[in-house]
Recover the amino acids of this structure.
C-alpha cells in the first residue's frame, strides 16, 4: 500500500457569468499520483495548473465555489476526502503536516514562537507543558535556530523570513508526521537562504523517515531535492516519473516545452518555446487538455489520451509518446 | 551591437543612498562606481537588500542620491533643470517587475504605449501612430490588443506592452528591474528571447536587475555582484561565471539550482543570514557569513581592486586559493 494515493481527482469551480448563466471552470481533471514511504515528490507546473488546489483538496481545505466532483485520496488506505472534520483534524498537523509559502503570515503574531510549537503538540497528544516546551527547544535547535532557548521566547516579527520558515519546519516536524506537504516552501526566500532551508528540510525528512510532497514552479528545486516528479497542466498530471528519467528524456510535449524554457536550456542553444496563454479552464479542448497549444497535436488528440508507460515508474499521458524511448536516447 | 565608443553613456561615481527611517539611517547603497557604454548590457545581481533596485532608481532619478553622481552622456543628472530632465526621460526608460501594477487599469494598452511619445516628444499624431505600429510589431504584440484594457491581457502580453512603452521613444538606456520575475517559466522564456533580440537589433544600453543568475548569464555582457549595497565583484559575464573570485559570488553561484539533476553542485554552506542594512558591519560586509574570513576582514572594509582589465574584487583574500578555503561540498 502506498503512503498516499490520489485517484482520479476532479474539482470544479461553479459560478455565474455576467448574464447570470452558470459557468464551470474545470480546475482538476483527473489527478492521480502515488507517493511511497520515504519518497520526495515534486509537483511542478505553471499558473492555473492546479498544484495548490490538489493540496487543498487533499487537506480538506476546499471551500465553495470549489466543488469536489469525484476522486479519492487514500492516506495509509483511508480516504481523506471522505473523512469528517473531526477525523481530519486528528490527522492534520500530526500524521500529515504542512509547510506553506509565507511563513510570516502563518505564525500567530501575538504568541511566542515556543508557545506555538507547544500548542501544536498539545492539540494532538496529552503532553505536559514542560515536556512540550523542551521538545520545542529541541526542534528549534534541530532546524538551526541559534540560541534556541532565548529565541523560543521571541515573537514572529523578531524573526527574518528564512528564520520564520525554519520555525514552520520545526512545527511541521513536531508531531512526527509521516507525510509533509510543502507548498512553495522557499519561493519568497533569497537564493543562499533557499539552499539552506531546502538542505535542512530534505535532510530532516530523510532522518525522520517521512515522505515529502513539494509543490513548486521552480524546476531547479525539483531537479536537486526530489526523487520523483509529477508535471501538471490544466488540472492533469501529464507526465510523472523518477527525476533523472523525466529530466533526461521528457516525453510529453508540455514537459519538453517547460524544460526548454529554462534560461540554461535557452543559453545552450535551445529555441524558446512559444508560450500560450494560461489554460482556459472554462473552455478546455476535448480530449487532451494540451492539444490546443501542442505543436504535434492531430485529430487523434481530440480523444482522451492514453497513459503510456515508458519505463519503470515513468509515464506520460499522450497519444504520440513512443514507448520505445531507447531509440531516442 | 554597436562598437564601444570612447565616452561612456553612463558614469556612476561614489553613488550612495541613505534612507532615514524611524529605526535610524538605512544605508542602502554605499559608494558604488560603474560605467556603461553604448549598447552594453550590465547585470546587477544580488539578494534582497543588496541595493540593486535602489541603484536602478537612482540612475532613473526616481530617487535623489545622498552622495555621488550619475552622469548620463557627460551631464550630471542632479544638475539638470526640469526641462532637460524631461528630454532625458525620452532617452532613459524603465520596465518594472510587476506589469499588473505598472499599467493603468482604466486606460487602453494603445493609449499607454503612446503616452511617452505625447509627453516627451513633439511628434505628430501620424508619426506617433507609425512609431507605435513599429514597436508593436517588434515586441510581437498583436495590434488588436491596443484597443483593450490591461485586465484583458495575460501577464506575458502585459509585460510586452510595458517593454513596448519603454522602447517607443527610442531610448539610449533601458533599466529592466526584474522584468521576468513575476512571470511563468514558459512566458518568461518568450520575454527573454525578445529582450535578447531587442538588444541585438536596437543596440540600446541596458541595466538588467535580477536575482536570477541564469537570466543574467543569458542577457548581460558584464555583471556587478552586490551585497548589502556594496559592490563585491564585477567582471565580464563569461569570466565571472567561469571563475568567480569573491567568496559571496562563489556562494551565490553554488546556491543556484540548475534545471539539470545530473549537474552536481559544489555546495558552499553559508552560516547565518544577511545582516541588517540598519547596522552595517564595520569591516567587509560579507565577513559575518564568509567561510574564509580572517580577523582583518572584520576590521576594515576591503576596497574594490582591479585584478585585470575586466575583473575587480573587494576581498582581502582575493589572492589566496579561495575555492579550497570555502569548504565546498559536492
Amino acid at each position: 500500500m502506498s503512503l498516499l494515493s490520489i485517484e482520479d481527482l476532479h474539482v470544479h469551480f461553479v459560478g455565474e457569468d455576467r448574464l447570470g448563466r452558470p459557468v464551470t471552470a474545470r480546475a482538476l481533471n483527473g489527478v492521480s499520483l502515488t507517493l511511497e514511504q520515504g519518497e520526495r515528490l515534486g509537483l511542478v507546473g505553471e499558473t492555473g495548473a492546479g498544484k495548490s488546489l490538489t493540496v487543498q483538496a487533499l487537506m480538506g481545505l476546499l471551500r465553495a465555489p470549489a466543488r469536489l466532483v469525484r476522486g479519492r485520496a487514500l492516506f495509509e488506505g483511508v480516504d481523506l476526502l471522505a473523512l469528517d472534520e473531526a477525523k481530519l483534524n486528528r490527522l492534520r498537523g500530526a500524521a500529515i503536516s504542512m509547510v506553506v509559502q509565507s511563513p510570516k503570515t502563518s505564525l500567530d503574531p501575538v504568541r511566542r514562537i515556543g508557545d506555538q510549537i507547544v500548542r501544536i503538540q498539545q492539540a494532538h497528544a496529552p503532553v505536559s507543558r514542560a515536556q512540550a516546551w523542551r521538545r520545542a527547544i529541541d526542534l528549534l535547535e534541530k532546524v538551526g535556530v541559534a540560541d534556541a532557548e532565548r529565541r523560543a521566547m521571541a515573537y514572529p516579527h523578531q524573526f527574518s523570513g528564512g528564520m520564520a520558515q525554519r520555525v514552520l519546519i520545526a512545527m511541521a516536524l513536531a508531531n512526527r508526521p509521516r507525510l509533509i506537504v510543502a507548498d512553495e516552501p522557499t519561493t519568497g526566500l533569497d537564493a543562499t537562504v533557499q539552499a539552506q532551508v531546502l538542505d535542512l528540510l530534505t535532510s530532516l525528512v530523510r532522518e525522520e523517515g517521512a515522505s515529502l510532497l513539494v509543490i513548486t514552479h521552480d524546476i531547479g528545486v525539483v531537479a536537486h531535492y526530489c526523487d520523483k516528479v509529477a508535471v501538471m497542466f490544466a488540472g492533469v498530471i501529464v507526465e510523472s516519473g523518477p527525476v533523472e528519467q523525466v529530466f533526461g528524456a521528457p516525453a510529453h510535449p508540455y514537459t519538453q516545452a517547460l524544460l526548454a524554457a529554462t534560461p540554461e536550456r535557452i543559453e545552450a542553444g535551445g529555441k524558446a518555446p512559444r508560450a500560450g496563454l494560461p489554460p482556459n479552464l472554462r473552455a478546455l479542448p476535448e480530449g487532451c487538455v494540451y492539444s490546443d497549444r501542442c505543436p504535434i497535436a492531430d485529430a487523434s488528440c481530440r480523444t482522451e489520451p492514453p497513459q503510456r508507460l515508458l519505463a519503470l515508474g515513468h509515464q506520460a499521458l499522450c497519444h504520440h509518446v513512443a514507448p520505445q524511448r531507447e531509440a531516442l536516447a | 551591437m554597436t562598437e564601444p565608443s570612447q565616452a561612456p553613456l553612463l558614469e556612476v561615481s561614489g553613488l550612495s543612498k541613505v534612507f532615514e527611517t524611524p529605526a535610524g539611517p538605512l544605508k542602502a547603497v554605499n559608494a558604488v562606481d560603474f560605467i556603461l557604454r553604448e549598447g552594453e548590457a550590465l547585470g546587477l545581481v544580488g539578494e534582497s537588500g543588496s541595493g540593486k533596485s535602489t541603484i536602478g532608481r537612482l540612475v532613473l532619478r526616481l530617487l535623489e542620491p545622498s552622495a555621488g553622481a550619475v552622469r548620463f552622456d557627460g551631464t550630471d543628472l542632479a544638475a539638470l533643470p526640469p526641462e532637460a530632465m524631461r528630454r532625458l526621460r525620452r532617452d532613459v526608460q524603465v520596465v518594472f517587475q510587476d506589469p499588473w501594477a505598472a499599467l493603468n487599469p482604466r486606460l487602453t494598452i494603445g493609449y499607454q504605449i503612446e503616452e511617452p511619445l505625447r509627453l516627451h516628444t513633439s511628434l505628430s499624431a501620424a508619426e506617433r501612430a507609425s512609431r507605435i505600429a513599429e514597436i508593436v510589431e517588434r515586441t510581437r504584440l498583436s495590434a488588436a490588443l491596443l484597443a483593450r484594457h490591461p485586465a484583458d491581457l495575460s501577464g506575458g502580453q502585459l509585460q510586452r506592452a510595458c517593454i513596448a512603452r519603454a522602447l517607443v521613444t527610442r531610448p539610449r538606456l533601458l533599466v529592466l528591474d526584474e522584468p521576468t520575475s513575476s512571470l511563468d517559466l514558459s512566458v518568461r522564456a518568450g520575454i527573454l528571447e525578445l529582450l535578447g533580440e531587442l538588444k541585438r537589433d536596437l543596440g540600446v544600453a541596458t541595466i538588467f536587475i535580477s536575482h536570477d543568475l541564469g537570466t543574467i548569464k543569458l542577457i548581460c555582457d558584464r555583471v556587478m555582484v552586490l551585497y548589502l549595497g556594496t559592490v563585491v565583484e564585477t567582471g565580464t559575464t563569461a569570466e565571472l561565471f567561469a571563475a568567480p573570485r569573491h567568496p559571496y559570488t562563489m556562494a551565490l553561484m553554488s546556491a543556484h539550482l540548475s534545471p539539470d539533476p545530473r549537474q552536481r553542485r559544489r555546495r558552499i554552506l553559508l552560516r547565518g543570514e544577511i545582516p541588517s542594512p540598519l547596522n552595517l558591519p564595520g569591516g567587509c560586509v560579507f565577513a559575518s557569513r564568509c567561510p574564509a574570513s580572517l580577523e582583518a576582514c572584520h576590521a576594515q572594509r576591503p576596497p574594490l581592486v582591479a585584478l585585470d582589465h575586466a575583473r575587480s574584487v573587494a576581498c582581502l583574500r582575493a589572492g589566496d586559493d579561495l575555492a579550497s578555503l570555502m569548504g565546498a561540498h559536492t
